[in-house]
Amino acid sequence: MKKWIAGLGALLIVQVVLAIALSTGGDPYAAFTPEEKLFAFKPAQVDSVQIEAADGQVSLKKKEGQWILSSLNDFPADQHKVTGLIGNLSELKKGWPVATTTGALKRFKVHENLFERRITLRQGDKAVARIYLGSSPGLRKAHARAADETDVIVVNLPLFEATVDRDAWIDRTILALNEKEITRAKLPAVTLTRHEDRWEVADLAEDEQTVSSKADEIIKKIAGFTITSLFTEKEDPELAKDDPVLEIILTLTGDRELKYTLSRLKEGDYLLQRNDQTLRFRVPEWEIDPVKDATREDMVAKANQPEEKHAADQAESPPSNEEEQP
Length: 326
Known about the structure:
There is one protein chain. The protein has 326 residues and is α+β, with helices and mostly antiparallel strands. It has two domains: 43-168; 179-316, no CATH class. The protein is 24% helix and 29% strand. It contains eight helices and 20 strands. The protein has helices at 2-25, 28-31, 79-90, 104-107, 212-223, 285-292, 296-299, 307-316, and strands at residues 48-53, 56-63, 66-69, 75-76, 110-111, 114-115, 117-123, 126-133, 142-146, 153-155, 182-186, 191-195, 198-201, 208-210, 229-231, 246-252, 256-264, 270-274, 280-283, 300-302. It has an eight-stranded antiparallel beta sheet, with helices on one face. It has an eight-stranded antiparallel beta sheet with strand order 13-12-11-16-17-18-19-15, with helices on one face. Strands 5-6 form a two-stranded antiparallel ribbon. Strand 1 and strand 2 (56-63) form a beta hairpin. The protein is elongated.
């Protein structure tokens, strides 16, 4: 009996020792919390960003306080997106290295001749930071290496935030207008004029009134046109055949005139040209179609008729091209 008790006691001691060892050992990667920053620059120092990949590159520069795409006729860039990338890079920490040998650089695609992204931040002609982004070990993560180091670390910086697609960096609101500056809008089927703070259909009869909500809606759409991509002078997009060209002419305060020319693209959406811009733009059809399809009947009601009643009548009215049933 004493031997059994001694044996059980020894087994208990072994179990206690193992439990202590396991609880104090842990995962060295999980216990490590990086504190030192990967780079020492401050975001305000940076005045140019170059992003390179195997299939292209993007160059962004700060000009007169604004970020532009220098390789695209100095077209305005998305300011928030550029400063966001720079800010994220400035906050990267030196994490626990997953590899430290030069032979591992190609395996993780952070080698100077084999990488997914190479990002260089400059102040004038001086590079203040250069980082290589490689393969992804998980969601919104990438293997990375500072150019002057051999340690490969994991950073919270997905590759899509450093894309070389030029259209991803453009200012999509370049066509946006202040509605209050528009005084007249000539659409394909109707003309609207501003009277103080109210839009009215031109040439109303005595027994007609403008449906303000409809007119306001159309003006808001035109003032808020957004672009999804652009075409340079050397690019010639294919247009849809037998589709009419649309024109919208806006008059702004100070008698400034903006002319929009819209053509449907073969693969969908619209090609938009505006007389104050040298480049041409792709605009989504869901933004253009409501303006193209707007009619005088949509925006005109009988005098003293509530707008709700007019909207209900329009909804119940059959399409004008519908054939009468026998």
